[in-house]
Amino acid sequence: MTGVVPLRAADARCGTKARTLGRLLRAGLAVPDGVVIPRALGTGWRHDLPLHLGALGAPTFAVRSSSSAEDGARASYAGQLRTVLHVPRAEVEDAVREVASATAADYEAALDLPAGGGVAVLVQPMLAPVAAGVAVTRHPVTGVVTTVVEAVPGLGEPLVSGRADPERWQVDRGGRARVDRVRDVLSPPRAEAVARLAESVERLLGGPQDVEWALDAGGTVWTLQARPVTTGPAAGPGPGARHAGTARGALLGTGTPAGPGTACGRVRVLRGLDDLPAFLPGEVLVCRATSPAWTPALARAAAVVTEVGGMLSHAAIVARELGLPAVTGLARARDLPDGALVRVDGSAGTVRTVMTS
């Protein structure tokens, strides 16, 4: 039996991401074709892979994880495993091994998940989109039945990694689009086309969906990933709530509501990974943006505030899964006074001082 599986034939051994994309491909949605290597740490696929890559006919590829643990209803593993983009054909084999070796131990510990098993690897031709992003078929903060679309020019990686401030649209079930944050990325018809795609995925798969998409120059909206919208426990007052005062404090800043609930704690500004050991349980994590390496701090935080990013970035998704109030895209967040006692309202997108009684 070959060690390489066409995406259209992906089954349970190919991991959740590939199996879902294979189902959508068979249903007629625009999904970049590809192949899956279920046992990527073995060697049985090396002989067959070059032939499959040649048939796909692309000069460069995206090499992506497809674990059976990720993309679940409770745990998305958003951004926790490995993706390598723009991989030349001659380097795909090395990239496959790199992706297959990735683990998500910190994330699994934070959410009290069992250790994940082997990681299958999905290989697809690289696209050259004019815009890309994420669409969810329920508002991730309020739960309202509407499709939220976030978009950036070109590839979506800066959006999902939280390194870019995206354009944001809301599209109601009547198909009417309203822009919340303008970045001149999508026109209303194109935002509506993205929303229609996400809603089609929801009808096919059932339940609210989180869809990564890309728009090409010809107007085709491609599906790159689809998974259930994950929600964590309702955000409580947070470990620092014992400091909460009764008076309304001064407004320090307003960003994007990204994780519902409120929490109080002392600001801890982290400017890099070297600052992580100084972070104490119950503090408010403030940084430019987060990555999987920040997960241990997120697990100890009362709330998280980032300078850039949207409500559909990987960091925002993980914060919601952890039940953390989160505010993203708060300009000059790292200028918040270190050690100050603040209240973070992730439903309103605000950070205020706490007036102690």
Automatic annotation (TrEMBL):
Superkingdom of origin: Bacteria
InterPro entries reported for this sequence: ATP_grasp_subdomain_1, PEP-util_enz_mobile_dom, PEP_Utilizing_Enz, Phosphohistidine_dom_sf, PPDK_AMP/ATP-bd
Domain Pyruvate phosphate dikinase AMP/ATP-binding per the UniProt entry, residue ranges: 59-177, 183-233
PEP-utilising enzyme mobile domain location: 281-349
One Pfam family cited in the UniProt record for this chain: PEP-utilizers
Alphabetic keyword roster: Kinase, Pyruvate, Transferase
Keyword Transferase among record annotations: yes
SUPFAM superfamilies: Glutathione synthetase ATP-binding domain-like (SSF56059), Phosphohistidine domain (SSF52009)
GO molecular function terms attached to this record: ATP binding; kinase activity
Listed name of the protein: Pyruvate kinase
Species for this entry: Cellulomonas hominis
